[in-house]
Amino acid sequence: GINAEYMGEAVLVVAFSPDGKILASGSGDKTIRIWDMVTETCVTTLKAHKNWVQALAWSPDGAYLVSGAKDTTALLWRTENGSVVQAGKPLSGHTKWITSITWEPLHASSSTRCERFATASKDATVRLWNVLQGRGGAKLQFTLSGHSSCVTAVKWGGVGFLYSASEDRTILVWDARNGGMVRKLEGHAHWVNSLALNTDAVLRSGAYDHTEKDFDTPQQAQAYARQRFEALLGNVSRATGAAEGAAGERLASGSDDNTLFMWAPHQSNKPIARLTGHQGPVTHVAFSPDGLALASSSFDKSVKLWHGATGKYQSTLRGHVSPVYLSCWSSDSRLLVSGSKDSTLKLWAAQSHSLSEDLPGHADEVYALDWSPDGLIVASGSKDKTIKLWRH
After folding, report:
1. By the 8 A CB rule, do 36 and 22 touch?
2. What CA–CA distance (Å, rounded) separates 17 from 104?
3. Lowest mean pLDDT: which of 105-119, 207-221, 325-339?
């Protein structure tokens, strides 16, 4: 099924809440729209930014949404009865636009709630914020300075570190406790565009999974989030024949130098593997939720699949006729959907490395893509000013 919803301008980002019940979208018309996934309708339009909204991130406990815009500010929103309301004043301090936002994982929080998030900016810094209890918004905790150019992506890992990628060709590893720089990952010969963790899917969804458990206390939810994180790392270790825990958290980076690197960034500044074969800039990287596969999208019009622990090349998915901007995985890691400049989405079967379905429908470039954590719906956003929902 498919439905299109008209927006005022190009749709730049879409993000499902951790329970998959709400979709947030950010647009060139400066608004954030909140969609109820039960009725598939827009329940509210949030007007607070003064320029394009280009980054969105939900807290893994579903309590908050953070938006980042070209107007240099981030905004904290809290969820309330299926919708969201602004919490506190705009978060100012960045001097250029916001490129990426990430939340501290639920299991890593010092309280039982998600309370910290980080914003990355074209101003070469990452800012770490603390949510103030009540309605007060958030306050700055640390400014992470070390990059010499635009920070393109920031990820908050599950073992106490943040990872930031930059147009300065480096990736920096930061200690989440004190904001100190731990190490520098070097090797890329051009801008680093995208980062992915093999733990992204479990970190993003916290205690929410297909079992739809109800927890009596926040402590139970936090313990379950930790259990999910540790189970994933255990599965990756077993699947790769590594000693228990030896595989650990993996980071992948994609660059304008046409290559990817795979890292064990909490352990070493030396890459595990350099992944070559793309004939154009790598726009986006994404690990499968089970951590066993990695997908890379490129200007060479292809998506490539790699082994999620070793980085060994597996396959090239061809079919798009223009650059591929991004891809995302189904929750069971069996399917991958890619979005392209050619206005189509393509659904690929990961095991057979084959095209499962062609999804035309957009009238222009596909900029935004997300697959709901419950696996039921893919949302895509386009330069054609529409959002489309695809039911699997």
Report:
1. yes
2. 15
3. 207-221
